[in-house]
Amino acid sequence: MPQSANQVATDTFVLERTYPRPVDRVWKLLANADAKRRWFFESDGTTIDAFEMDFRVGGKERAQYSFRKGTPVDGLPFVNESIFFDIVPDERIVMAQSMSINGRIISAALVTFEVAQSGGGTALKLIHQGVFLEGSGGPEMRKHGWKVLLDKLDSALAGAA
Asked: What is the CATH number for 82?
């Protein structure tokens, strides 16, 4: 359901994937700043202005970027800011995250990644508990975005040696 001008939407969704790579390879792409920047933020349609990640409990991640021409948000500055609340190596990451466009926060979320050995690969579970404000596009748009990102993670793993 589309949001009205002043309506707040909340939603929780869970996405699960199994990757044919060991847990340590999947974990590296979640925990290593250079690796995460490449699969999570870099693309032909994105310009990254800044990215930093301090991967520890209490550490922060911040990305400032914009989308290139051909999108409704062409050239507007996006900022994702996160704080890591819980990290269990090779098992779990819990982080709070906000997203803003042009200086205005459009969403806040608690995002949990769980990884576990599954046969010869890794099962990944993403739990997203979000609050979506005006201009966010709502939960369906965010869910779609995470599906795209998990596909990018799969591609990054396929290229990993």
From this structure: 3.30.530.20
Q: Distance between CA atoms of 38 and 60, rounded to whole angstroms?
A: 18
* Structural Rg of the chain based on CA atoms: 16
Is 2 within a domain? no
Domain that holds residue 39: 9-159
Q: What is the pLDDT along the chain (161 residues), one digit of tens a residue?
A: 454 556 899 999 999 999 999 999 999 999 999 999 999 988 877 889 999 999 999 999 999 998 877 666 777 899 999 999 999 999 999 999 999 999 999 999 999 999 999 998 999 999 999 999 988 888 898 999 999 999 999 999 998 64
